[in-house]
Design a protein that fits this description.
Blueprint (H helix, E strand, L loop, with lengths): L3 E4 L6 H16 L5 E5 L5 H9 L6 E2 L18 E2 L4 H10 L5 E5 L5 E6 H14 L1 E6 H8 L2 E2 L2 H4 L3 E8 L15 E5 L3 H10 L3 E5 L5 H4 L6 E5 L3 H8 L17 E2 L4 H11 L4 E4 L5 E5 L11 E5 L15 E7 L13 E4 L5 H11 L6 H14 L10 H14 L3 H9 L8 H7 L1 E6 L2 E10 L2 H5 L2 H14 L4 E8 L4 E7 L2 H8 L7 E5 L4 H13 L1
Parallel strand pairs: 1-2, 1-16, 2-3, 4-5, 9-10, 10-11, 11-12, 13-14, 16-17, 17-18, 20-21
Antiparallel strand pairs: 5-6, 7-9, 8-12, 14-15, 19-20, 21-22, 22-23
Helix pairs in contact: 1-11, 1-12, 11-12, 11-13, 12-13, 12-14, 18-19
């Protein structure tokens, strides 16, 4: 069964990662085993501290939820070796009547060619005029004729080739075989058998006939084969011993890979208009075949969004996915769905507070380690309950989770926020909790770093500004704000690039050298974005 990805926003913080893991664990606990936690970006040092503290690994990272070839119900018919006979391949094709072609593969599973019914028909029509069998392995001939070798010369023969001839009565000299490079088919005709053995033709096929005793001891280089088929049928079957590697199409093949987007594949299908396309995996091995009918009703990936409901902050390809549910504590934004879904959006300081309530609604208690992780996520997102977004529900939920995990909230908070940030690059710090916003025609980004020594972080202001200016230019943003939220000072140092007047009007403080301090400002969601939204209307 395809997974249902539970994912937070890009550049995920601790609340986002833990919320995805906790909700997936809740759904799995009630029997919905297909739910799987995922993350969209780099897991921060703070989150790693929390994960390691409670014995968890980071969730699976996904880069997009575009509908891909691997999401289609494509066919997986038998993949044929180049050595398979035309006869055996045709039987396989008759069992796959809905497919116009079958893949032909090398020994390592990579693509050699495609065998279609047209290839087989063309080969048969060419034989009507030539009646020449190119060298084929003896085993192939024995296979299609269901025959056996009758003499020592046959046992030492590896390949069979020549002009196919059905022996006629000796009285018709002008129609008899007269070339050594022949494959002679005859019935109970001792004179024809003797002539063939005397001429040392390449192969003598006895059709529903016995080799006379006097001819068994005759010295000859001819390979003798017996078959239960009559000469007419044997003549048709023997040409089906040719390996399909000789007749399949190998040039100008159009292939697709499992990771290819369906939208891109549709364009290619319209361009090349083939009947059938091989599908390859990341190791270039054949895994299936695609026809245009598979593109009609693709299965969309299924996702649950936690800790966000804004397209710019979500996984790429979200418009092609099926959103099943949203659990969030931010403002309602721009995500649209094709069908009604369950949305749980509550004014609390942490998504994990909501999920803790959902555990309670189901009559379940999270495991001790999961509860400890959820308590840490609430502490992180409410900045030790000092953020204005923090509510009594957050405090009660964190305390309950801490009791289940038997941990101290104070010690947990110190462990989270005292993590050293000095060794990290400005790129890592800026991108760790970075969110894009689109407000009234303005494109901006706001990043937040929670620390216990913002003055130390301000020493790297010029490095931050250089990076932010470059990012604003490359991403076409009118403003980038970095919040250095200081737990001890209970406020945030703002470093920004953009219009000074906008900053002055939004926050009522005159900035200096692209910085300002906002006492009591701890929340991007509740204290920074609303100010800009009010300014821009």
């Amino acid at each position: 069964m395809d997974p249902i990805y539970v994912t937070g926003h890009r550049n995920p913080d601790t609340d986002s990662i833990v919320a995805a893991m906790a909700y997936a664990a809740l759904r799995n606990a009630v029997g919905d085993r297909e739910y799987e936690a995922a993350c969209l970006g780099h897991v921060s040092d703070e989150t790693h501290i929390v994960l390691n503290r409670f014995g968890f690994q980071p969730p699976k990272r996904i880069t997009n939820v575009y509908t891909q070839i691997k999401d289609l119900d494509f066919d997986t018919p038998p993949f044929l070796s180049t050595a398979v006979t035309v006869g055996r391949a045709w039987r396989n094709m008759q069992q796959q009547k809905n497919l116009p072609a079958l893949p032909v593969i090398n020994e390592d599973g990579t693509l050699f060619g495609m065998l279609s019914r047209e290839n087989v028909a063309s080969y048969n029509m060419e034989l009507v005029s030539s009646s020449i069998l190119e060298p084929v392995p003896l085993f192939n001939v024995l296979s299609v004729l269901e025959g056996k070798v009758l003499n020592d010369a046959g046992e030492s023969t590896d390949t069979v080739s020549g002009e196919l001839v059905i022996a006629l009565p000796q009285s018709r000299e002008n129609l008899m075989f007269n070339r050594k490079e022949s494959i002679v088919l005859c019935g109970q005709q001792p004179d024809m058998m003797k002539r063939a053995l005397q001429m040392n033709v390449n192969c003598l096929v006895l059709c529903q006939a016995e080799l006379p005793e006097e001819l068994r001891e005759m010295e000859t280089k001819t390979c003798i084969i017996s078959t239960s088929y009559d000469a007419y049928r044997a003549a048709r079957l023997i040409f089906q011993s040719t390996p399909i590697g000789r007749i399949c199409r190998t040039a100008d093949l159009v292939c697709f890979h499992l990771e290819d987007r369906v939208d891109d594949v549709k364009e290619q299908v319209l361009k090349f208009r083939e009947n059938c396309y091989p599908i390859l995996d990341e190791q270039e091995k054949v895994v299936g075949v695609l026809t245009r009918y598979h593109l009609l009703r693709p299965r969309r990936k299924r996702v649950v969004l936690v800790d966000h409901n804004e397209a710019a902050q979500s996984v790429p390809g979200l418009d092609e996915a099926e959103i099943l549910e949203i659990i969030d504590h931010h403002r309602l934004a721009d995500i649209q769905t094709a069908n009604p879904i369950s949305v749980r959006n509550e004014p609390v300081g942490s998504t994990n507070t909501i999920i803790a309530s959902m555990f309670q609604d189901k009559g379940l208690i999270p495991s001790a380690n999961m509860a400890g992780m959820m308590a840490a996520a609430i502490i992180s997102d409410t900045v030790m309950f000092k953020s204005p977004t923090c509510t009594e529900r957050d405090i009660r939920a964190a305390e309950r989770m801490a009791r289940i995990a038997n941990v101290s909230l104070e010690e947990l908070g110190r462990e989270i926020f005292s993590a050293s940030l000095e060794h990290r690059t400005v790129e890592d710090l800026l991108r760790a909790d970075y969110k894009d916003f689109h407000i009234a025609g303005y494109n901006l980004a706001v990043s937040q770093v929670t620390c216990v020594d913002s003055d130390k972080m301000l020493e790297r202001k010029e490095e931050f500004l250089d990076l932010m200016k470059a990012s604003a230019k490359s991403d076409d943003l009118s403003m980038i704000i970095l919040m250095l939220t200081d737990v001890l000072k209970e406020g945030s140092q703002l470093i920004y690039v953009g219009d000074d007047e906008i900053i002055h009007q939004a926050f009522g403080v005159t900035p200096k050298d692209n910085t300002l301090f906002l006492p009591g400002v701890m929340s991007r969601k509740k204290q920074v974005i609303p100010m800009l939204s009010a300014l821009w209307g």
